[in-house]
Amino acid sequence: MAKFLLLLRDNPTDFTSLSPAEIQRIIGEYRAWAEGLRARDQLHNSNKLMDDAGKIVQHNGTSVTLKDGPYSETKEVIGGYFLIEAADYAAAVEIARSCPHVRPGAKGTIEVRQIQEM
Amino acid sequence: MAGEAVTPDVPGLVDRLFRREAGRLTAAMARRLGPSHLGVAEDIAQETLARALRVWPFRGVPDDPVAWLHAVARRLVLDALRRDAALARNTPALALDLLAQSPTAPDTVFADELVDDELRLLFMCAHPDLSAEMRTALVLKTGCGLSVEEIAAGLLREPATVAQWLVRAKKRIRERGLSLDMPEPQALPERLGTVLDAIYLAFNEAWSASAGDTLVKPDVCLEMLALAERLSRHPVTGAPGTHALHALLSFQSARLATRTDADGNLLLLADQDRAAWDRGLIARGLAALAHAADGERLSEYHLLAGIAGEHAIAADFDATDWRAIRAYYDLLVGISPSPVHRLNRVVALAMESGPAAGLDALARLEDDTALRGFHLLYATRGELLRRAGRGAEACTAFRRALELARSEPERRLLRKRLA
C-alpha cells in the first residue's frame, strides 16, 4: 500500500450563499465519504488549513525574506488535505473522484500526490 | 461512495440542525448586537454555518455541534466589533461584555436561553409596524432558516422582491427602534397569530406548490412542522391555536410521502396508500388536538385540524365521516370564507349527500366573482358531473380547469381525468 496526499482546493467565497439545508447535506456527504475510508483503514489523517494568505519564507540572495503567500491574490486556496492509503495512483484517483469536493456543481479541485517512501 | 444520493445518519448531526441553528444563531447574535444590527447578525449566522462546512469535512463533526457553532459565532461577533468601531459604539452592553470575555471562555448560552432568543426574534418579526409581506418574509427567513430563493418559491414571488422586503424590514426595524423585548401580554395573541399564519402559509405553499414542476416540498413542510412543535412546547406560545396548528401540520405531514406517485404525479386522497401514512405523526396530531381543546376560541386551525384528523383516522376512503367533515366546513366557511374553504365544503357535502346536492351548492358558488377563473372550481364541477353520469359536460369542465391550472402535476392529473 502507498500513501497519497489529497490537496483540496476551492474558493471559500463559493460557500457563503449556500442555504442551511444545502450545507447540512454536503457535510453529511463528506462525513459518509470519510467514514467509508476509515472503515477500510484507508484514512491516515486530515486537516483544515486556515483560509488566509499564508506566508512565504525565502532567501533572496542576501537575507531571508518574508512575504505573503500565494493566496493573497488568487481566489483559490488549499482548504485542507486528506492523507490516505491506496494500492496505486489509479486507486487513489478513484477515491478522489468519489469525494464530495468534486460532486456535481462543485467548483473545487483535488490534487493527488503520492508520498515518496524511499 | 460516489453517485449515492443517500445521506446516512450522522451522530450529533441531527436532522435539519443547520436550519434550526440558522435562526437561533441569528437570534442570539441579534440580542447581543441589538435589533438594529439584524443584518449583521444574519451575516454572522451565515458565515458561521459556512465555516462549519469548511472545517467539519476535515475535522469531523464536533462532539457538541451546537456549542461549536455558537462559539464560532461569538468569535465572529468579536471580530466584527473590533473591526468596526461604529458597530461597537451602537451596540448594547451585552456585546461589550462579550468583548471583555476571553474568546476561549466557556459557552454561557443555555438551551432555554436559545429558545427564548428565538421567540423574541420571531415576535419582533411579527411586529405590527412591519407590513404583512415583511413579517412573513422575516419569520420565514429568521425563524425557519429558509433561503430567499425558498421563500420566493413558496410565496410565488421573485427572489429579488423577497430580498427587497427583507432589506426594507431591517431598515424599518432600525428606524423605528423596534425592540427584542417580549411583547406585552395584551399584544401577544395578535403577534402569535401573525407567526402562526406565516408558518401555515409557508407549509401550504410547500404542500401544494401552486406553480412549476414539483408539487410538494417535503423539506419545507417538515421544517414548518418542527417550528410549530417548538412553539407549542413553549409556555408562552403554547396557546390552543398553536396546538391546533401543530395538530394540523402533523396530520398533513403524515401523508407527505403518499401525495405523489413515483413519477411525481398528484394522488388524490382516495388513491393514496393509507398503510404508508405515518402513524407516529397521526398520534402526535391527535395529542396536539386534545391540547388545542383547552381554549375558548375556535380558530381556523382548530377546524382545519379537525378535518385533517377525520381523514387521518378513517380506515379507508369509504369509511370517511363526511358528515363530520361537512359540519367542520360549515363552521370554517363562517369564520374564513376563502374560495378553497367554500369549494371544499361543497366537496364534503357531495360526498355526504351525493353529486346532485354538490352540483346544486356549486352552482351558487359559480356566481361569485371571487371564484371566477379558479381552476379547482371547474375541476370539482367536472368530478361531480362525472360521478352523476354526465360525461360530456364533465369533459367540458375538466378542459376549462386544464386551461386555468398553473402547476404541471395538476395539469397531468386533469389530463388523466379527461382521457
Account of the 3D structure:
The complex is a heterodimer of chains A (118) and B (419). Chain A has helices spanning 20-39, 89-97; strands at residues 2-10, 43-48, 55-59, 64-68, 77-86, 109-114. Chain A is of the alpha+beta class. The model of chain A has no long low-confidence stretch (mean pLDDT 90). Chain B has 20 helices and no strands. In chain B, helix 14 runs antiparallel to helix 15 (322-335) and helix 18 runs antiparallel to helix 19. The interface between A and B is medium-sized, with 33 and 33 residues.
In short:
The complex is a heterodimer of chains A (118) and B (419). Chain A has 118 residues and is α+β, with helices and mostly antiparallel strands.
Class of secondary structure makeup of chain B: mainly alpha
Indicate the mean pLDDT of chain B: 84
Kindly report the oligomeric state of this protein.
heterodimer
Number of domains of chain A: 1
Give the full name of the CATH homologous superfamily of chain A.
Dimeric alpha+beta barrel
Main beta-sheet strand count, sense and barrel state of chain B: none
Gyration radius of chain B, rounded: 24 Å
Quote the distance from N terminus to C terminus of chain B: 44 Å
The average pLDDT value of chain A, as a whole number, equals 90
Number of strands of chain B: 0
Strand portion of chain B: under 5%
Which spans of chain B of ≥5 residues are poorly predicted at pLDDT below 50? 1-12, 103-109
State the distance separating the first and last CA atoms of chain A.
14 Å
